[in-house]
Amino acid sequence: MTNGQIEELQIEQIPTMKLSNDTSATESSDNKETDWVPDAAIADMNSIIKNETSVEGAIKWSVWLKLFTAPPLRWFGLFLMIIFMLINEAVYDFSNVWLAMWSNKDYSEQRLSFYAYIYLGAVGSILIVAIIRVGFGFYIMLRGSTYLHNRMLTGMLYTSLRCFESNPSGRILNRASKDQQVLDQSLPVALIDTMQYLLMIIGSITVIGRTNLWVLLILIPLIPSVLWLRRFYMRSSRQLKRLESVTRSPIYTLFSSSFDGLTSIRAFNVQDDFLNMFMDRIDTNSRAYFILSTSAYWFGLRLDVMVSFLTLITALLAVFFRHQILPSAAAL
Question: Where is the ABC transmembrane type-1 domain (predicted)?
Fold first, then answer.
């Protein structure tokens, strides 16, 4: 058994009794002895089970639209989710600006409860809108994953029998378990965090540029560098993620087939062989997963370096223009 397929043994009939050249008498066919010897194992070129392949390139926008515009809310749910994200970021930036304005007032005016009530209302609004935004975002994503799951299940129920013959059970199980888990758990959290950090970056750049326009000059070399790193990382991580998914299917296939043929495995005493094959497939999948994880840390390290550089330049400019910038504005 190699690569998840049982290879056929080519059987050749090799005669053990050969006639010598100087012998004129011929023996009867009943006296001829033959042995059936298995030849070297070769791959089955006519197998209906095909190797699993992965697509290349980015995910189409139509797939994302199907995920975000799933029934029952469809486009209204997508627009409402975007509005909640924008309101949350707007209230967050308003609270920071209001705190800066409050700190610029004189001592007698700072003691007025008006500023404290406004700031307290802004902080409370951030909490309420954030809870609504996260809850509604998870709702939209879970409705989209349910819609895609139902389409997948409908396609599996109404497909032909040849689909199950040409695809091992582990491959189907991988699509219906791990890939669906990514849609249900990993993707909503990653999407919400990504949108939150993106809006926070835009809001921070707006506040900093409003305070000191010279800081915006740093963005001229910084933005192309970030976009180039993102493009390089996305192409690599996308293919690594697909490679990790492809190498996971043989693990499920071998695990399920071993359970089905457990009596035969024990009867022929080949438990160690199957255990070694199982460990080899786990090692193959672990290598792909390890490279995927290290690529994420590689990208994160370079982003941290760029953000630290931006913070350093902002701090130096705040010190250089300390006589022209208010202390509260510099704190932002």
Answer: 75-332
CATH code for the domain in which residue 170 is found: 1.20.1560.10
pLDDT at 306 > cutoff 60? yes
Interatomic CA distance for residues 22 and 118, integer angstroms: 116
How confident is the model over 3-32, as pLDDT tens digits? Answer: 433 333 333 333 333 333 444 443 444 444
Q: Stretch 204-227: mean pLDDT, rounded?
A: 83
Write the DSSP symbol of residue 213.
G
Residue 262: inside a domain: no
Please give the model's pTM, rounded to 2 decimal places.
Answer: 0.70
Determine what percent of the chain falls in helix, strand and coil, rounding each to the nearest 5.
75, 5, 20
- Residues in CB range of 150: below 8 A, 6 or more apart: none
The 8-class DSSP code of residue 3 comes to T
The residues near 38 (Cβ < 8 Å, ≥ 6 apart) are 9, 10, 11
Q: If pLDDT is split at 50, 70 and 90, which confidence band does 298 have?
A: very high
Burial of 142 (0-12, 13-18, 19+ CB in 10 A): middle
